[in-house]
Amino acid sequence: MKKVTCLTIAGADSGGGAGIQADLKTFAALGVHGVSVITSVTAQNTQGVEGVHNLPQSFIKRQMEAVHADFEIATAKTGMLATEEIIKLVANNVGDYPLVVDPVMVATSGDKLQESSAVEALKKHLLPKAALVTPNIHEAEVLSGIKIRSLEDAREAALRIAENTKAVLVKGGHLRGVDVLYHEGEFYEFSSEYYKGRYHGTGCTYSAAITAYLAKGLELKEAVEKAKEYIADAIRYSYSPGKGARILNQLINIEREAMRHAVLVDLEAAVEEVVNLPGFQRLIPEVGINFVYSLPNPKGAEDVAGIRGRIVKAGGRAVIAGCVGFAASQHVSRVLLAASRKHPSVRSAINIRYSPETLKAVEETGLKVASFSRDDEPPGVSTMEWGTLKAIEDHGELPDAIYDEGAVGKEPMIRLLGKNPQDIVLKVRRILKELAK
Predict the structure, then answer these.
(1) pLDDT of 18-38, one tens digit each?
(2) How many domains does the chain have?
(3) Which label site among 91, 142, 207, 269 has the fewest CB atoms less than 10 Å from its CB?
């Protein structure tokens, strides 16, 4: 299968979190081939920039000639262009492909990555060639001359910058994660969950994702929207390999796809094991049992695997009525999703039959038990989400089991929570052992 090719023209980050390294990881994760022109080499890590070495202009030009001679570039992006001379060189040698300009001026650590004299060169020579410019708040202030303290300020700054280019995306990391796009006379806003903390490589990754999506044929607004979703996940699943800022996980979409198979395999094995436990049929409620397992930090039911059907009682024994798959449960997945928001370690859950005898057995095992009453439920909420969160809040810590005594038309139920399916199986074993006494 032929892949489209994207070009990044930027500096190299020896810490692996930003620059060329972040761009190429993003290109690979989004299914495009990445080629590069390195403008500067930095000595940096997650704590700061120790030094910058700008490559000779002749060698930067030689790299550009090499990639243009062999590859059909679909889209390109620029990152760190440290000097006026480098900016002019790049502007004079880019092709007629769509160009995303990320005006990198300062590193996450606060270290300066661009000479002051380069700003005017950027505005005069490179912005007019850009299909999109992606400044953060600080960069947008420099390019527009406007102090940005609100979304209205961001819109005004975008308008000013757009005098020299086709479209502007003011990235709102300091505006609680709201980005403002100005394109063809219209404003658009893109928001996502806001994550506190210091993150390295956000601007590079975001602009690289937009570049990749444009190469794959998306219109600009849709490319920004998809890239916003991608960068939110990369931040959400960031990690700390060093002692400073967190590194974005550009490969999280690939990692999560690989995890999906492992989740299904582990859940299927646990389901087979639990139904064969002596006496397990005693725990099956009238509505049947579902047993779920999620990806880490699940976003919704699509990230929670369960049984397509249920575990039911037939002929006096437990029977699995369906195979495992994602988005296969509503009741139990809602419990899991609510619990995991409070306690990310919770990734598995099962519902079992409520009775005073079973509840006593759960308590006798030493498992921590919490409960909620449907009588207290406010109108307009999801019972499972509300009940789970209330039980956890009232209990004061993460319980092993949450129960309610039901209501008219609602069967009483016990739900067990665990780190993984084997954790659930062990808890069920302990309950059955207690019931057998």
Answers:
(1) 999 999 999 999 999 999 999
(2) 2
(3) 269
